[in-house]
Specification:
By secondary structure, this protein is an alpha+beta fold. It folds into three domains: about 1-125, Beta-Lactamase, CATH 3.30.450.20; about 140-220, Helix Hairpins; about 220-375, Histidine kinase-like ATPase, C-terminal domain (Heat Shock Protein 90), CATH 3.30.565.10. The protein is built from eleven helices and twelve strands. Strands 2-1-5-4-3 form a five-stranded antiparallel β-sheet. The longest helix has about 55 residues, at about 125-180. The structure holds adenosine-5'-diphosphate (ADP).
């Protein structure tokens, strides 16, 4: 006798079995039913296609045979974690019969009620997805670097101005030395020493400005390191000292004490701060506000650190009601703007598990804020 189940389908157990068998075979992801030791009890056609085996060959094999040996520890760990129940999801590399490999995402699902078939493994080939993500990461890094180069190009005029002064000093000290040496006999050794010191100090000053600039264009930093956010803020402000002077902007730092360290790519966070500071300087340069003040603050908010760059310029453009649109690529109100700075900054901060947003200052001007997670759950490192 046939009964109807809730879905209206045939309800006899053999009909259901046949139905589930068809579903099992039709699923496009690889399915492995394995016992507690990992012995394969059943597979679907997708698993055979993906791994290059026949159903007959796979049945009875240990499932570890289709996992690259380098990923066995991860597999064991995942199995241990779920024990006889629960679900795991692990990124692995799977082996085909011919020895070739593919990136695989494995979802293991324990079926404790089934006695001899304790779990089901669903394997998806994610090679293409991983490649696309990797390409996207590379493009983002290249875009970030391009934007750094563009910003550096714009900073070059201010830097040239700044380097000009120590170079003029070097020339003057050197001329004084030459004249003193030419007037043999009357030459004071103390004067020569003092002028020589002047040459060394001025050259060091010029060198420092240039080194900072070339650091910023550098392709990559040393990667993520444990860093002090206050130090990165100070370095960034220093980096833009020439432009601040040119635009007659005074920068006030309100840096909190005893902040936790942040695990960041210093060059990238510096790039974010440089973008925000330059935007603030430029906004005020075209605005009648005196004094031109930018405040950079750091604060601990729970387990995170919040950095705020606040100015007293014209405020956010009125056309941007929704803050988000400011962070879209190629959105700019500047005649020669690229509209990339905020978009790239937001990407960098997101990649660091933080958030970047803008607010209007109550007494005029704009404020840009970003958060970064503190290291060790936000415990203080004394920075
Ligand atoms: P760009 O600087 O090339 O325009 P950004 O992405 O850095 O690109 O900035 C996008 C736009 O956001 C700017 O053109 C400007 O309209 C606005 N903006 C950014 N920072 C500020 C600020 N501090 N005050 C006012 N408007 C700002």
């Amino acid at each position: 006798m046939r009964s109807r189940d809730a879905s209206g389908g045939a309800g006899t157990s053999s009909a259901r079995q046949q139905h589930y068998g068809q579903v099992f075979d039709a699923i496009p992801d690889s399915l492995f039913v394995v016992d507690i030791r990992g012995k394969v009890l059943d597979v679907n056609p997708a698993a055979c296609r993906a791994h290059g085996y026949s159903r007959h060959e796979l049945t009875g094999l240990n499932v570890r045979r289709v996992i690259h040996p380098g990923y066995h520890p991860r597999f064991e760990e995942s199995c241990r974690k779920i024990g006889g129940q629960g679900v795991f999801c692990a990124q692995m590399v799977d082996l085909r019969k011919d020895g070739s490999t593919f990136d695989a995402e494995m979802i293991g699902r324990a079926i404790p009620a089934r006695g001899k078939t304790p779990w089901l493994a669903i394997v998806r080939d994610v090679t293409q997805r991983n490649r696309t993500e990797e390409r996207l990461r590379r493009i983002e890094a290249q875009l970030a670097r391009l934007s750094r180069v563009a910003a550096t190009g714009e900073m070059a005029a201010a830097v040239a101005h700044e380097v000009n002064q120590p170079i003029c000093s070097i020339i003057n000290y050197a001329k004084a030395c030459r004249n003193a040496l030419a007037a043999e006999g009357t030459c004071q050794l103390d004067d020569l020493r003092q002028w020589n010191e002047g040459i060394v100090a001025s050259a060091a000053q010029a060198c420092e400005v240039i080194t900072r600039l070339s650091d910023m264009v550098g392709k990559t930093g040393p990667g993520r390191t444990s860093s002090s956010i206050n130090q990165i803020v100070e370095e960034s402000v220093h980096l833009l000292a020439c432009e601040a002077r040119q635009h007659q902007v005074a920068v006030t730092l309100k840096l909190a004490d005893s902040l936790p360290a942040v695990h960041v790519d210093r060059i990238q966070i510096q790039q974010v701060l440089v973008n925000l500071l330059r935007n603030a300087y430029q906004a005020m340069a075209n605005h009648l506000c005196k004094p031109r003040l930018v405040t950079v603050g750091t604060a601990r908010i729970g387990t995170c650190i919040e950095v705020t760059v606040s100015d007293c310029g014209p405020g956010l453009p009125p056309t941007f009601d929704d803050d988000l649109s400011l962070f879209d690529t190629f959105v700019t109100t500047k005649p020669d703007g690229l509209g990339l700075g905020l978009a790239i900054s937001a990407t960098i901060i997101r990649a660091h598990d933080g958030r970047l947003w803008a607010t209007a200052n109550p007494d005029g001007g704009a404020a840009f804020h970003f958060t970064l997670p503190g290291e060790n759950g936000g415990r203080s490192n004394g920075y």
